[in-house]
Amino acid sequence: xxxxxxxxxxxxxxxxxxxQNQAILGEDTVRVSEHVWAIMGFPNIGIVVGRDxxxxxxxxxxxxxxxxxxxxxxxxxxxxxxxxxxxxxxxxHAGGASGFPAGTILIRDKVQQDEMEKHGAEMIxxxxxxxxxxxxxxxxxxxxxxxxxxxxxxxxxxGGGVKARLLWFGGAHTKGDELTFVEPDKTLxxxxxxxxxxxxxxxxxxxxxxxxxxxxDQVAKLGAVHVLPDHSAVGDGSLVAQEKAFITDLRTRxxxxxxxxxxxxxxxxxxxxxxxxxxxDWQINSVSGFVKSVYAE
Length: 297
Ligand SMILES: [Zn+2]
Ligand SMILES: [Zn+2]
Hints:
The chain is of the alpha/beta class. The protein contains 9 helices and 13 strands. It is about 40% helix and about 20% strand. One zinc ion (ZN) binds next to loops.
């Protein structure tokens, strides 16, 4: 009898870790909170359902995935108006916008749109060169201009008392990272800014470790109870403090080694060993990339 739960757990982890790397989104959803659901995949897609409108956060990689996300979102409330927003401009988050039906209202922060215009096409090219499947998924990806952009905050009233606050607090993983805070659920759809035990990463000319910490201080004030990250498991509000603690620890240690004259490559190697030992339940392959970002700050 005891072996059955163990096997079920194994099967569950096999499925969930597979889903995390699976570039083709499925149609199954998990419920995050009263009005928020998610398709768990690459990346996790957030779906916020109000009485009159539904908001989808992120598109999946390429239009085929975008069409799946839209279809699943529509199923919750077919007559609802459809909004789409994206956590950042990277292709698995925003490269499926053209798969959404006509009439979908696309909104994102201005800084993110600016990055999209500068680097969006080049990122799609880069992702396409990684493997044949991604190339095919991105073959007809278009980057439609948003219907609306905002500076720091746009509140979407989805009806029936459900509100989604779209927020830009500054640069972290990218310059334009957007966060969505759903009320009354107190659910944070956190993009790459808050993950569940995943090493943070700053891509290209994104934010800095210091600006990431400042963003997290703002996020903490929201008082999230549920957190839906985009590349890891759903968690509670404690993920915000956990992310800040990890980044602060890694930044402090990297700055210490820098002061001692250790070069960035060597510091990355040493801190990877140190943090693997210290954070045993985190997915740590290497912290070298983030250490480089600290050195470059
Ligand atoms: Zn990204
Ligand atoms: Zn991503």
